[in-house]
Amino acid sequence: MEKEGVRIGLLELQAKQFTITSLVSDNDGKIKKMMEDHPRFSQIVHHCDFWHLVKGLNKVLRELAKRKECPNLEYWRRKIVDHCYAMHEKFPDDRNTGLEYMKSALAHVCDRHTHFEKVVSIHIGTCVYSG
Prior knowledge:
This protein is mostly helical. It has two domains: about 1-50, no CATH class; about 50-120, no CATH class. Helix content is about 55%, strand content about 5%. It is built from five helices and two strands. The chain has helices spanning about 1-15, 30-35, 50-65, 75-90, 95-110; strands at about 20-25, 45-50. Strands 1-2 form a two-stranded parallel ribbon. Strand 1, helix 2 (about 30-35) and strand 2 (about 45-50) form a beta-alpha-beta unit. Helix 4 runs antiparallel to helix 5 (about 95-110). The longest helix is centred in the middle third of the chain and has 18 residues, at about 75-90.
């Protein structure tokens, strides 16, 4: 039903000569597939809204934390989610830098807050958030 509403809305806007360059929606696979496959929508960049991304991450971490081989993950789950929100707020227009800091969350789990350059693919020097 949501997919159909998005489809109808986009077609109506296009019929009224609106140029649509991007769409933000929840993390619905049906909408994502429609945006990729529909010939009138293929040029529209589809983004998942941040809240839904973090909600999905939180759900995955919560399930992983139930495993006996992940005894400390429940403790870190909330900190990782908080880290996501802090980076989203700090870098609203620079997603690449925000992603670099999100990768630093892995170092947080190991209680490392400096020398991230030693961690593969993290190109920052010091943590800006340790909460």
